[in-house]
Fold this protein.
Amino acid sequence: MNHFGFATPVALGFALLMALVAAAILHDASLARSLSTARLLHQRAFAAGEFGLARTVIELAPADAPIPAPRRATLPGHPTDSVETSVSEVLGTDLPIGYSAGRIVERHFEIRSIGWSLRNARVVQVEGLYRFALAGNP
Amino acid sequence: MKGPPGWMLSLAPAFFLATPLAAATVDSCIAESRTPIVLRTDSRAPPSPMKAFLIANLLPELRILDASGRPLWSAGATGRFTQLFPEMTAGFTSSVSALDLDGDGVHDRIYAGDLNGRLWRFDLYAGASPRLTGGVFADFGEDRIGRGFLAPPDVTLMAPAVGAPWLSIAIGTANTTPATVASTSSPLTHRFFVLRDHGPLERWTQKQHDRWKTLVMADLVLADDTLGEGEQIDARLAAGAGFYLNLGTNQVLAPALTLDGKTIFTVAHTTQSQLLPCGTGLQTRVAISVGAVSATDGSPAMDLDGSGLRDANDLNVSLDKLSSADASVTLAITDSGTENNINCSVDGQALPDCSLDTRLHRSFWRREDAD
C-alpha cells in the first residue's frame, strides 16, 4: 500500500515561503538602509550648500565688497563634503523705488551654491540678494 | 547764432552734475552745465546707444553735442534750432536731470528748471538724430522777478503698496538776477517744492505735452510747519500735484537727496545771487541749514537736530559752521570697524539720523537640483 505523505511538501512549501519572506525582509532592510544613507548624504550636501551660501553672504556684506570669485572648497571637519560657489550681479537699476534716481543704485546678486557629498550627492541652491549702493561704486 | 559769452565757456562743468556725490568744497560757478546723456540713434544699424552731452547755460536754449562736440540737437524759442519751444525764454544753467527709466542704459526723460521758475519735462525718442518732446511741467515764476531754479531736480520713483506709482521731483528756487540788482531790491522769498509726475514711465507725445495743464502754486499744498510726526498734510496729496515749503529769503543752490522716501535738502542763508562768473571773489561761505521731509506726505522725516523727535524743527536745522553756498547733502562711506556705513554729511558735517542702509536683503531662494 502506497502512502503519499503530505508532511514533506508542506514542510518544503513552508520553507520556501519563509525563504521568500526572509528575502523580502532583507530587501526592505537593504532598501531602507540605502535610502537612509542617500538621504543622509543628501542632507550633508544640502548643509554644504548652505555653508557656501552663508560664507558668500558674509564676503559680500561690506558695502564696498567686490564680487567674490567662483571657488570650490572642502568643508572643515568633513573632508568628503565640498561646496562650489559663484556670484553674479544679475541686475542693477539706477531708479530704485524711494531713492534718488542716478545717485543711488539698487544692485541685485545671485549666489549659486552647489553642495557635494559622497556618492555624488549634490544639492544646488540659489539665493537672490539686493542692496542699495552709491552710483558709480563697484 | 550768438554763442555764450567767453567767461561762461571757460567755466568748469557743473561739479555736482559730474560728481553728484562728491563733497562740495568749492564755491559755486553754476552758470553752465554739461550733463552726460546716452541716446539711442537709428542712424546706425542696429540702433545703438551713443554718448552725448546736454548743454545748458544762461541763454534760453538747450543743446545736445556728441562726444566730439558736434551739434546733434538744439532747442529754443525762435531762430535756427532743431526744435522750437515757444515758451523757452529763459536759460537752464545747472538745473538739469536726465533719467533712464527702463534700465536699458539709454536716457528717456529730462527734467530741467529754468531761470524763470519753470520746470520742464522732456521725453527722448530714438531717431536718426535726437528728437525730444517737451513742455513746461510746472510754472512757479508767476511774476518773473528773478526767482528761478539753479540746482538740479532730485527725481525719485515712488511706488506705494496701494495706488499708482509717481515720480517725486524735489527742487527749490534761488535768486537768478545779478547780485547788484538783488542787493538794491527787496530780498526775494523762496520755496522748496516736492512735485508729483503721475506719468512716471510713459513717454509723452508732443500733443500730450501741449495738452498738459501746467502746475502752478494753487495746485500744491503748503506743508504746514506745525505738522508733527506722521501727520498728513492733506488728503489732496494722495492724488495731487505735490507740496511745498516756504524758505523765506534762503535759497536752494544744491540738489536734494532722497533716501527711503525721505527727501533731505540744504538751503543757503544768503540773499546774493550765485549766478556770477567764477573767480570774481564775490562767492562767500555762508550759513547752511538742512531739512528733511517725507516725499509722500511732507511731514518731518528725520531727527536732524538730534532732539529725539521728528518735528517741525527738523525742517530747518542750522549747521555748526559756514559752508559753500551750494553745499549739497552727500553720502560718504565711513568704516566703523566691523562693517561699512554710508552716512550723510554736508561739507564734512555729519547729519544725524541720515544714512543709507547698504545691508544685503534676501529677495528669493530656490533649489535647482532635480533630486
